[in-house]
Specification:
Blueprint lengths: L4 H8 L3 H8 L10 H13 L6 H8 L4 E6 L5 H16 L3 E6 L4 H13 L4 E4 L7 H8 L4 E4 L9 E5 L1 H14 L5 E4 L6 H16 L9 E2 L5 H12 L7 E4 L2 H13 L9 E6 L12 E4 L2 H17 L8 E4 L2 E3 L15 H4 L1
Parallel strand pairs: 1-2, 1-3, 3-4, 4-5, 5-11, 6-7, 6-8, 8-9, 9-10
Antiparallel strand pairs: 10-12
Helix pairs in contact: 1-2, 1-3, 2-7, 5-12, 8-9, 10-11
The structure holds alpha-D-ribofuranose.
Alpha-D-ribofuranose binds next to strand 9.
Length: about 350
């Protein structure tokens, strides 16, 4: 297998970005010492590194192929986005190669290397979102790149996200407006942009409604249903358990629904629930779930448009950060505590 920048980074103890900057003759710009540069080149020589000219050559030649990397292909939210991006890429004459990272940064790295070696014309990444150092060299090499859903403040590349903080705020403010005071949050993957912003929106809504946050009601560590189930069971064991749960993804909500049902409880009579994504199943459950809807079509189409622009400008396009507005869709899963019959907003008509 050919030696990559990652191999040189691992052996030299420097980051991929530093190694890339040495090979891209940017040592002065980034104040990389002569000693560091020569050590990195020495390690490259020892490894018999040959710059991947084939990939570079391929990249300079259009292959009319785009790469798309997603964190969880089994999640209907990402599956829906894949279909939108596939359909829209096709209208521009591009085919799509899709890779799943299973929320694993090492796998994300591997897929990026493979796609680069195939000479793709551009890359859309919905990153795991916990670290960006392995993406910086793509920017350095002017690889046309758009980040979707989870992005990084400091990374100079285009991105498409939704206003996660506003969506979470509106969800929790709505729950509090229905009279709830014990409102729990089941978080997704820690240290990701999407999760951090949703937790912030949750906190701001509690503060606006004069509710002090209770750390015991802030649980969870992954956007998938198994974690939602475990977190909800944890919440239901608390002595003064929450009367409402804000789930930071639909799959978390699915897991929570199973845990609530196993406890012999019902939604919304015993526990109110709001989710985030609003994939198709949300409205067809026994109790249609109130959810923060992400504008999936707009996300996918905007990502493709930004990438095509970059391809036309050979990756030298100034980064554009597009933040789209989510929308709270009120259904039947939140009970109004301040109404004697406890009916939901929609049931009350
Ligand atoms: O459902 C998976 C979650 O992870 C979604 O809310 C999406 O925004 C991603 O961050």
């Amino acid at each position: 297998m050919s030696i990559t920048l990652h191999d040189i980074a691992r052996k030299s103890g420097f980051s991929v970005t530093t190694v890339s900057r040495v090979f891209n003759k940017q040592t002065a710009r980034y104040r990389i010492s002569r000693e560091t540069a020569s050590y990195i080149l020495q390690v490259a020589g020892e490894l018999n590194y040959r710059p991947n000219q084939i990939a570079r050559g391929l990249r300079l030649k259009k292959t009319h192929t785009l790469g798309l990397i997603v964190p969880d292909i089994s999640n209907p939210f990402f599956a829906y986005l894949i279909r939108i991006i596939q359909r829209f890429s096709h209208t521009f004459g591009y085919s799509l190669v899709v890779c799943d990272t299973d929320e694993n940064v090492d796998l994300e790295n591997e897929h990026i290397e493979v796609l680069r070696s195939k000479g793709i014309d551009g890359l859309i990444i919905m990153p795991v979102g916990q670290s960006s150092s392995h993406l910086e060299y793509l920017v350095l090499e002017n690889m046309p790149l758009v980040l979707v859903d989870r992005c990084f403040e400091g990374l100079q590349t285009s991105s498409v996200t939704v206003d996660n903080r506003r969506g979470a705020f509106e969800a929790v403010d709505y729950i509090a407006g229905c009279g709830h005071r014990r409102i729990a949050i089941v978080q997704g993957l820690p240290h990701t942009y999407a999760n951090n912003e949703r937790v912030q929106g949750y906190r701001e809504a509690l503060s606006k409604n004069g509710i002090s946050p209770d750390e015991r009601l802030m649980v969870g560590n992954d956007f998938r249903s198994e974690a939602g189930y475990t977190a909800a069971r944890q919440l239901l064991k608390i002595e003064s358990r929450p009367t409402a749960i804000f789930a930071t993804s639909d799959l978390i909500a699915l897991g929570a629904i199973q845990a609530i049902r196993e406890e012999g409880l019902t939604i919304p009579e015993d526990i109110s629930l709001v989710a985030f994504d609003d994939i198709e199943f949300a409205m067809s459950l026994a109790c249609p779930i109130t959810a923060v809807a992400q504008p999936k079509e707009q996300i996918g189409e905007t990502a493709v448009q930004l990438l095509i622009e970059q391809i036309k400008n050979r990756g030298k396009q100034r980064p554009k950060h597009v933040m789209l507005a989510p929308k709270l869709i009120v259904r039947d899963s939140v009970r109004r505590i301040d109404r004697p019959n406890g009916r939901t907003e929609r049931q009350a008509g």
